[in-house]
Amino acid sequence: MTSSATSAAPSAAATSGSPSGLTVRKLELDLSQGFDRHWHGGDAFLSQYHNALSMSFPVGEQSFIDAVRDCAKLLPRTPEHALLHEAVAQFIGQEATHRHIHALYNAHLEKQGLVNRWQHWATARIEFARSKGVGPRHFLAVTAAYEHLTAMLADYMLRHDRAVEKADPKMRMLWQWHAAEETEHRAVAYDLYLALEGSYAWRIRWYIYALILFTVDSGRQTVLNLWHDGTLFRPGTWWSAAKFFWGRHGVVWHCAGPLLAYFRRDFHPDQEAFVEPGQQTRTLAQRWLKEHAESFRVVR
């Protein structure tokens, strides 16, 4: 495990009951009454893009849980690895809560007439890989790659308030809570992969695989959502998409550096060397969690 990984937990632990610095929380949010079809400030594209991401989470989060749990069994329970084992347990707890709340979210999307294909694409690929005997370290490398991709989106959401400022308040709460916790545990799968001496070559191969699949799957599920929504061919939909990805503060410009950073041999998810003090993503996440502590209940 890298020095940056082992040094990150103690400072975070000051705000957590866990030595790992991770906290399992239950978001106190009632989705029983649902939400508007265009909950993201009336913007069809932004609403359906985020809905598409949510559609991937229940299957995705479960696959991450399985990969981390399976590989943790390969890591000796020695004092040297005690903190990482604790982080794995908390990671699983956080991902389980994400899986649960997004299942509720997705159930309402079905009532709105949207069709979740992403969950079936992901399930088919996972089952195929298992049938071919793909080993646990490979699943862990895929998990580390997807965790990096979601952490980049989480950073964007936490760093740019305008990303969700016009959204339905409860949906804004859901997405920012998820972003904060993704930031908290962004290094767990990666640290476990390093501790198990996973190779750099396979880390990069699976990262490219995950990057391509995420781009393709998120795109085609968003298009499918917009088709069912009846807004796919509206000029405003495409203009919103262009601004979101390629605008002055677009996701592409924000994520280009972190996307490329993963290719470095000395990369670690907690590296933020060029970010001003107090503006690191982990600091922003901790600040958000502190300011909204009344919105969730600590489980452990």
Write a compact overview of the structure shown.
Helix content is 65%, strand content 2%. It has helices spanning 3-13, 44-72, 82-111, 118-131, 136-159, 169-184, 188-195, 200-229, 235-246, 251-261, 281-291, and strands at residues 25-27, 296-298.
Detailed description of the structure:
- The protein is mainly α and 300 residues long.
- It has one domain (3-298): Ribonucleotide Reductase, subunit A (Orthogonal Bundle), CATH 1.10.620.
- The protein contains eleven helices and two strands; from the N terminus they run αβααααααααααβ.
- The two termini are 25 Å apart.
- Helix 5 runs antiparallel to helix 7.
Q: Do you know the CATH topology?
A: Ribonucleotide Reductase, subunit A
By secondary-structure content and strand pairing, the structural class works out as: mainly alpha
Rounded to an integer in angstroms, the radius of gyration calculated over CA atoms is 19 Å
Shape field: globular
CATH class: Mainly Alpha
CATH architecture: Orthogonal Bundle
Number of strands: 2
Whole-number count of domains: 1
Which percent bin holds the helix content?
Answer: 55-70%
H/E topology pattern: HEHHHHHHHHHHE
Q: Please tally the helical runs, counting DSSP H or I stretches of 4 or more residues.
A: 11
Distance between the termini: 25 Å
Query: Quick one: biggest sheet?
Result: 2 strands, antiparallel
Query: How confident overall, as mean pLDDT?
Result: 92
Low confidence ranges: 1-15
The strand line-up of the biggest sheet is 1-2
Determine the strand fraction and express it as a percent band: under 5%
